Amino acid sequence: MAEVKLKNLTVKYGEVVAVNNVSLTFEDKKFTVMLGPSGCGKTSTLRSIAGLTRPASGEIYIGERLVNDLYPSERNVAMVFQSYALYPHMNVFDNLAFCLKPLKLTRSEIKEKVNQISQTLHLEEFLNRYPAELSSGQQQRVAIGRALIRRPAVLLLDEPLSQLDAVLREEMKVYIKKLQEELAITTIHVTHDQTEAQAMGDRIVVMDLGVIQQIGTPQEVYNNPVNLFVAGFIGNPSMNLISGELSREEGKFFLVSKEVKIPIPPKLGKKLEKGNITGEIVLGIRPEHIFLFPEAIQDSVEAEIIEVLPQNNEFIIDLSCDSFSFKVRKDKEVLGFHPQVGQKSWFTLNEEKTYFFDKETTRRIELP
Ligand code: ADP
Ligand code: MG
């Protein structure tokens, strides 16, 4: 097994910089998720590690070995593509066995290895079927089986769940995670879906525009986003972001934007004062961290309920204050009233969970 280390990796397609000077280590035997929007450079990074794309500059190490000049087959890495890429004219057995060809094994050795991997992936019953005779979930297990049959040191998964329907996706999330733990294989799993990243990753690498934005555990990137991009990208529904000017009236702080004037909770106001934070900033608050009341309370702001989306045990509520709209997410039992479209309600911010960001640099402002 092996860690994967990238040093100043840059990938270009003509003038397009797909990966921009990325340095990071994917830890040995860990499940790392690379998360970012479409086009941010995830596939280019994976293909560079696999040896399918030649970087413009930078170094790639697998374990101790510098692999830049090695062929894909010499890197001891396997990649599962978004499209699965199974051979349609071969049955499952042959699809799995095909990857063993270069090893020049005997028939019985091949049979043993195929049987072993098909047991791990629960494919024993399907060995005689062709890809077209399999469900998408089964096809995907064959694709993973093919990647694993040679026991690579590193497994690269490029959006492996994106082709599956919602129920199967949930199943495969658990399945892939368990398989990775069982086999203790260094795994890099790429996705644009932050829910998937939160559920699966030991660590998450958040990327945007070819650049790493943040690396952390699922909790770290959720609780302590380093900048506006990560804050907005992680969490569903997204964090509410309100741009405005901090103002002070009679000892109280407010965030004043064109649309709305929000009182800052007193404890937070004190911290802003202590940190000497003034001027234009962006306030961030997750939908689950807004308190909502059916009547006015001290320092609350009036808003109108525009939309109510019941979801299992919670409500996602769209509110608007003049032209400013935002979302609140509440446990039905915690909320304590039944929200109705058109109804007035009053909100306050959870002072422990309110974030501030620098408007220029987009970085989160650390409060004292
Ligand atoms: P992701 O996997 O995160 O969606 P990619 O690594 O596929 O991102 O792409 C990163 C950027 O590089 C995008 O702007 C994409 O359009 C561009 N790109 C990817 N592959 C090629 C290619 N073969 N030729 C030209 N541009 C490419
Ligand atoms: Mg991709």
Rg on CA atoms, Å:
25 Å
Major pleated sheet:
6 strands, mixed
Tell how many strands the DSSP assignment holds.
20
The string of secondary-structure elements, in order, is: EEEHEEEHHHEHEHEEHHEEEHEEEEEHEE
Structural class: alpha+beta
CATH topology of the largest domain, anyone?
A: Rossmann fold
The name of the CATH superfamily of the largest domain reads P-loop containing nucleotide triphosphate hydrolases
**Which compounds are bound in this model?**
adenosine-5'-diphosphate, magnesium ion
Report strand order across the widest sheet.
6-7-8-3-9-10
Q: Could you say which overall geometry the principal axes of the C-alpha atoms support?
A: elongated
Question: Can I get a quick summary?
Answer:
By secondary structure, the protein is an alpha+beta fold.
Explain how this protein is built:
This protein is α+β, with helices and mostly antiparallel strands. The protein has two domains: 4-233, P-loop containing nucleotide triphosphate hydrolases (Rossmann fold); 240-358, Nucleic acid-binding proteins (OB fold (Dihydrolipoamide Acetyltransferase, E2P), Beta Barrel), CATH 2.40.50.140. It is 25% helix and 35% strand. The protein has ten helices and 20 strands. It has helices at residues 42-50, 92-98, 107-120, 136-148, 166-183, 194-200, 218-223, 228-233, 266-274, 332-335; strands at residues 4-13, 16-26, 31-35, 57-62, 65-66, 77-80, 154-158, 186-191, 203-208, 211-216, 240-249, 252-256, 261-263, 279-285, 290-293, 301-311, 314-321, 324-331, 344-349, 354-358. The chain has a six-stranded mixed β-sheet, with helices on both faces. Strands 13-12-11-14-20 form a five-stranded antiparallel β-sheet. Helix 5 links the parallel strand 7 (154-158) and strand 8 (186-191). Helix 2 (92-98) packs parallel to helix 4 (136-148). The longest helix is centred in the middle third of the chain and has 18 residues, at 166-183. Magnesium ion is lined by residues 42-43, 158.
